[in-house]
């Protein structure tokens, strides 16, 4: 079946907002044997009408995103209804839940807001659990007089569209495509190994399996590996990947590194604290993004200045003077002091030079030390070098720190030392 | 003049690669009064031919990206030439520079590589200074028998396309558009007021100005307002917006709230500390994302548990017992203790229920108190209610806290109190 996507939004065509929907929807529908064969981005104007008319004739499944909000430039709902010759009817249930939503939030009711409860006659409503504008689905040829594909109309904000798509659109799509050419897809999230090294390790062997499709996606300090194929192709590929990459795979369930760590700590009733200099709270923020983090996260010290290192954690000023704030000894002291002050089982510490300024010939921008203190083993400190922009630097350091902790947690209390990990691919020990 | 963009590339439609060209080209051509009115993404197939034919009829300027490389799936060059009825001719100069380039890099010569020196008869070549495949420009109606727009064919890799576009395409575009209808664009980033309320406040008045274009983009705790028009239209619109929204506008230079705050604090040589419970380090993380933050950010206390509130900041356990950790009094205490411990001029504190668990009838998930302590005025505490997913909750709270601080900083030392703000705005006082 031919699928197409229309992204509406003047802001997209002005370059103010980067579209995220094509990549997301393409990956979601691929396992159903569906591919987007054409994507069009059009402004919030009459152009929507013309594009709908053209694509109605050209595909069996059509996704339309954006333009469902309360403001005057949100006209997608109206254009879709008109193009299909369907009347817009106010859905009383939607209206009530909208009113509820706004009352709860103390948002003033405006005329525009009510429009979000209008839906084309015969549409199946997709509730929006993360925003106010619902999405909807219109079956193929819903108006016998106007030949049309299956049409899915979805809100623009990714955080609204994505959960809605997975929860409501995917089941409808399944019933449309049936269980014919179903493909399986597996994801492997890998930390501490560079993309090129992952490919070198498993690329050829996996691609030697006929029919298998292999994809890589590199993020700061992380590689996402994707295989797609029929069950009988997936299994041998999975065997190669898991046996080769071993412990470097931190999730096969698309979990984040912080989610995995919170699970591991909760399982062992253990706790964590952090002493962050160069990451400035990013590690604590990532950990506390995970529901249930409060059970395992005790305290986070963001000791950005030297004085804070001394005031908050009692790090000896002489130590900082002697070795500099960005040093093995200070990373060690931060981790051990944080663990002591917070009374946690583990403590992670970071100290480094994020830049753009503050570097020196001996310690250039990108230099960073990560420390892990724990009860069962002596404190480990690892040095990394991430010469990049400030935000990427912070992400790489946080990722490296969390991975050091994860390795410790899965290698268990027994091990007194651990293989060094690296977010660059200098590391050949993939186990 | 109507401009359109075709992105070729099967990988784009599989979601393996994020397109960067639309945003880049849109911003580059905007100052010339040009806008992309339609963008199509098509696979490396016959679809390119059909799309070219359709857009030839629809625009005066057409950009085509990707598919110029040496591999078999690179067919854009051939499709463009065919569509215009132009012969492909090998350019001896290009062929030589290609050979030179490969020799220098010790890359083996293949038949495919030579194709990159083929150009349609009459094309103006754009040298590729960062890769091997050149781009080219074909003037409108280059083949009198086939009506066609100005066509710009550009390589896929952004690092090749972008410098080529700026150095070679822009001058050609300038000569095409002349210095006629140049448009201006202004952006306003607004915090503390909801999207609907912003529209209610300025929408009608601004749209009453003939020719002006108005756009909204909502983000957690923030609205981005965009106006486009000729200078004589922009000025009155700008006057309406700035006079109506006043202090709610935190940037007209596309800065983030944290960038604005770091600037303000640096300007006054003032410092900040944070005591974050429910935001878990997000505020510290955002502040420390800004280069130069080390000059103004002293310390961040992520006191997630009750014990941490007492251990780190000496908050009286009886206070927590009496009012609960999520309360006006504890928010106040956290802010004041953080300011005292860190010795900073200002301190922001957050305490709330991020959920999904931990709510109660009296304090449901989404309840949060934000405190601001300072030298010059008594501590202010504001209550908010953000019933949403955990990460959005944290973003909304961080945004509200930063906005409370920004208002204080711009209202200056003098003011002893301030108008309450709200990230979803029950607030009608837009000043």
Structure commentary:
- The structure is a homodimer of 431-residue chains.
- Chain A has 431 residues and is an alpha/beta fold.
- Chain A folds into 3 domains: 2-177, MoaB/Mog-like domain (Molybdenum Cofactor Biosythetic Enzyme, Chain A, 3-Layer(aba) Sandwich); 184-251, Alpha-Beta Plaits; 257-425, CinA-like (Maf protein, Alpha-Beta Complex).
- In chain A, 39% of the residues lie in helices and 22% in strands.
- The first copy, chain A, is built from 15 helices and 17 strands.
- In chain A, the strands form 4 sheets. Chain A has a 6-stranded mixed β-sheet, with helices on both faces.
- In chain A, helix 3 packs across helix 4.
- The longest helix of chain A has 22 residues, at 390-411.
- The two termini of chain A are 42 Å apart.
- At the A-B interface, helix 1, helix 2, strand 2, helix 11 and strand 14 of A face helix 2, strand 2, helix 8, strand 10 and strand 11 of B.
């Amino acid at each position: 079946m031919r699928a197409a996507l229309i992204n509406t939004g003047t802001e997209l065509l002005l370059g103010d907002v980067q579209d995220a929907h094509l990549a997301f929807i393409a990956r979601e529908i691929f396992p159903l044997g569906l591919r987007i064969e054409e994507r069009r981005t059009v402004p919030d104007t009459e152009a929507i009408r013309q594009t709908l008319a053209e694509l109605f004739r050209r595909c069996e499944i059509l996704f339309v995103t954006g333009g469902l909000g309360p403001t005057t430039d949100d006209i997608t709902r109206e254009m879709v209804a008109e193009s299909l010759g369907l009347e817009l009817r106010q859905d009383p249930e939607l209206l009530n839940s909208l009113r509820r939503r706004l009352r709860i939030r103390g948002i003033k009711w405006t005329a525009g807001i009510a429009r979000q409860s209008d839906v084309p006659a015969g549409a199946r409503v997709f509730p929006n659990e993360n925003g106010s504008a619902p999405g909807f689905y219109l079956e193929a040829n819903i108006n016998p007089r106007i030949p049309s594909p299956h049409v899915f109309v979805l809100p623009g904000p990714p955080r609204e569209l994505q959960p809605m798509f997975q929860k409501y659109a995917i089941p409808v799509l399944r019933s449309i495509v049936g269980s014919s050419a179903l493909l399986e897809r597996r994801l492997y999230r890998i930390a501490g190994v560079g993309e090129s090294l992952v490919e070198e390790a498993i690329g050829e062997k996996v691609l030697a399996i006929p029919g298998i499709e292999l994809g890589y996606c590199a993020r700061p300090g992380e590689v996402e590996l994707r295989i797609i194929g029929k069950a009988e192709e997936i299994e041998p590929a999975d065997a190669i990947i898991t046996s080769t990459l071993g412990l470097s795979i931190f999730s096969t369930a698309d979990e984040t590194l912080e989610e995995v760590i919170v699970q591991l700590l909760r399982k062992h009733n253990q706790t964590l604290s952090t002493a962050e200099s160069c990451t400035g709270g990013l590690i604590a923020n990532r950990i506390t993004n995970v529901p249930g983090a409060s059970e395992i996260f005790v305290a986070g010290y963001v000791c950005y200045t030297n004085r804070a290192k001394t005031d908050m954690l009692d790090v000896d000023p002489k130590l900082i003077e002697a070795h500099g704030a960005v040093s093995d000894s200070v990373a060690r002291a931060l981790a051990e002091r944080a663990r002591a002050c917070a009374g946690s089982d583990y403590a992670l510490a970071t100290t480094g030079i994020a830049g753009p300024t503050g570097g020196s010939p001996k310690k250039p921008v990108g230099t960073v030390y990560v420390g892990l203190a724990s009860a069962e083993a002596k404190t480990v400190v690892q040095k990394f070098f991430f010469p990049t922009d400030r935000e990427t630097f912070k992400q790489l350091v946080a990722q490296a720190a969390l991975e050091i902790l994860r390795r410790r947690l899965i290698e268990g209390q027994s091990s007194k030392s651990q293989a060094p990990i690296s977010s660059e691919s200098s590391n050949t020990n993939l186990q």
